[in-house]
Design a protein that fits this description.
Strands 1, 2, 3, 4, 5, 6, 7, 8 and 9 form a nine-stranded antiparallel beta sheet that branches. A three-stranded antiparallel beta sheet has the order 10-11-12. It contains 23 helices and twelve strands. The chain is 53% helix and 14% strand. By secondary structure, the chain is α+β, with helices and mostly antiparallel strands.
């Protein structure tokens, strides 16, 4: 109830910004500026934004997720368990669990023999954390006559998609009864038991009907917020993005389409926002169109926006913060009153971005620098000082604090004590606990723009049909490889032309990147996502400059057109791996894996070792 009210209030605020401020005021205030400063949007600009947004929106919602979950059981609360009861005492050789669980969770798999004695089979710390776990029982365990098998949650969360039990002859057992603790609005577990082996060999399950990656944190948290469940909520991040994502679940239900709806909506809205931002920076429709195109054909943007994660919403509000900050700088001399309104909305967007994820606060040093440089020697009143303090301190802080209210009310806790403990926990989780871990999925900050790393989120192979499914987070290599030359060209242009738009953009990129360069913790490729959105603007600017050299030589526009065409072709060719569709194993493993460090699908040798088979 409380979370729904806050979500609706936030959405009304955002819609109000767009309807009553962004369009009628900010977009028209340029008419009050001098002719050299005017960069008012044209009907042509609006048409480009509308067509591109609608086209991308329709495309991105294709096969984003089912309106009904695959059979699944969520071990999302302490002591929740599954109980298998055999028709007669049976010798067990293997137990196959298809699912995943959190790194901090603890689940136990144990049996009761015919004398009602407990036989411990496994705990989650010796099972594969992602996809299948095939538990082979030891000799002494396999000789026991087992009457029941229990999967018991000690510390949440564990997700189970399939349970298969094999007897001492390695034959799947189907003759048993089962019961399980369940939430009738969440669990759909009847289909996870006693699946015929022939069916499992013929079917590859994709992300279309199930949770993958961080969705098991954020989608489940969003569901529990909506239902006011007094259970542990993942608090490694601020809660606002999770609350926003819960709106999709509220409208469409607890299913893949529902929990991915809001993240994808923000991914769609990012396209017109990047157009507006770039158009304001350079007063060039062509550069803005290229920047919007590059965001639309980036693998990472398409993939990460179609998962119930935090990245698409926090990136949207970060970019909105930069947009309003730029408007503040543009309007400070020509229209001081409007500039302070833009500064106020910069603070609102900053607060929302930080309340989604701490990386939203990376903009703060640049905002303070912009205010100091701009307000120096400007005539100010006490109202100006009050507005500045409100914009950079009071409003962002209030929004950040408000994002924790549903959590505290739902768990009936005291505000300040709980808030301080949650901040401490988040800090420890994001720093100290990550230092000594080195998961195979991690990458280095310097690898990101080079396009050397990928993040294989989910993958399955069917050896009987030679088909494969993969869901990979990676950037469009053509865009990533061009990012470093484009940024260096941007610096050269700044030295030669003192272009204010390029200066602002370069500082923004540095502010978003520097924290990851100096962070002493494990880092992942998708941390580069927000940075890449800004970097694509530099690539668009560089391609536009090449086009302008067409009077010097026809070779330059040829390079520009060829580059854009190749980037689009790459988007088409790699669609199966970033959209999570089933395709030929050889196509992904041999044809698309151009660099040895790219992990686009489970290789055959790893496949048989880790049992990633459905």
């Amino acid at each position: 109830m409380y979370s729904s009210a806050i979500i609706i209030a936030l959405l009304i605020t955002i819609v109000g910004l767009v309807r009553f401020y962004l369009i009628p005021r900010v977009l028209t205030t340029a008419t009050q500026a001098t002719p050299s400063q005017s960069n008012r949007l044209t009907k042509y600009d609006y048409a480009i934004m509308l067509v591109a947004t609608l086209a991308y929106g329709c495309f991105s919602f294709q096969n984003i997720g089912s309106h009904q979950q695959n059979p699944v059981w969520y071990g999302d609360s302490t002591s929740k368990e599954i109980n298998l009861i055999f028709a007669k005492p049976t010798k067990i050789s293997q137990i196959k669990l298809d699912g995943c669980f959190d790194k901090d969770s603890l689940a136990k798999v144990y049996g009761l023999n015919n004398q009602n004695k407990t036989i411990n089979f496994a705990t989650s710390n010796n099972m594969s954390r992602i996809n299948c776990s095939l538990l082979g029982l030891q000799n002494q365990e396999s000789q026991q006559l087992i009457q029941q098998i229990k999967i018991h949650i000690v510390t949440p969360t564990m997700i189970v998609y399939k349970v298969m039990v094999y007897d001492d002859k390695n034959t799947a057992i189907h003759n048993y009864q089962y019961d399980y603790d369940h939430d009738q609005n969440l669990d759909n577990a009847d289909g996870i038991f006693a699946v015929p082996e022939s069916a499992s060999k013929m079917t590859i399950t994709t992300n279309y009907g199930k949770m993958i990656f961080g969705e098991r944190y954020y989608a489940l948290n969003a569901y529990h917020y909506l239902h006011g469940n007094n259970i542990a909520i993942n608090s490694a991040h601020p809660q606002l993005a999770i609350l926003i994502n819960s709106l999709g679940i509220k409208i469409f239900g607890m299913n893949p389409f529902g929990w991915r709806f809001m993240p994808n909506l923000f991914g769609i809205l990012l396209l017109p926002l990047i157009f507006l931002f770039t158009r304001r920076l350079f007063n060039k429709t062509s550069i803005a169109t290229l920047a919007m195109l590059f965001v639309g054909i980036d693998f990472m943007h398409f993939a990460i926006s179609r998962l119930a994660l935090l990245e698409s919403s926090v990136t949207f509000f970060i970019l909105a913060s930069y947009y309003f900050m730029w408007r503040y700088l543009q309007l400070r001399k020509s229209s001081p009153k409007q500039s302070y309104s833009a500064l106020l909305y910069t603070g609102i967007m900053l607060g929302i971005a930080t309340a989604c994820k701490w990386s939203g606060g990376f903009i703060l040093p640049m905002l303070i620098l912009a205010i100091v440089v701009t307000e120096y020697r400007q005539q100010k009143t006490w109202r100006n000082y009050a507005l500045i303090i409100s914009s950079i301190i009071i409003i962002p802080s209030l929004i950040y604090l408000a994002s924790y209210i549903p959590y505290i009310i739902m768990n009936k806790l005291t505000f300040w004590n709980t808030f301080s403990k949650l901040q401490e926990y988040a800090f420890i989780t994001q720093s100290k606990l990550m230092i000594n871990s080195s998961p195979v999925e991690a990458s280095k900050w310097w690898q990101w723009p080079l396009g050397l790393s990928t993040l294989l989120v989910d993958s399955r192979i069917n050896i009987f049909t030679a088909k494969a499914y993969s869901f990979v987070l990676m950037g469009n290599p053509l865009l990533y490889w061009a990012s470093i030359p484009a940024f260096l060209a941007t610096i050269i242009c700044i030295v030669k032309t003192r272009n204010r738009g390029l200066i602002f953009l370069s500082i923004a990129i540095i502010c978003q990147y520097l924290p990851y360069i100096f962070a002493k913790r494990v880092e992942y490729l998708y941390y580069y996502y927000t940075i890449s959105i800004l970097v694509f603007i530099t690539v668009a600017y560089a391609i536009h400059q090449l086009w302008l050299l067409r009077g010097v030589s026809k070779f330059y526009p040829f390079i520009a057109i060829s580059y854009v065409a190749l980037a689009i072709l790459a988007f088409i060719a790699y669609y199966p791996v970033y959209a999570g569709t089933i395709t030929d194993f050889s196509y992904v493993y041999r044809d698309l894996s151009l660099i040895s460090s790219w992990k686009l699908v489970i290789p055959p040798n790893v496949y048989f070792d880790t049992q990633h088979m459905i």
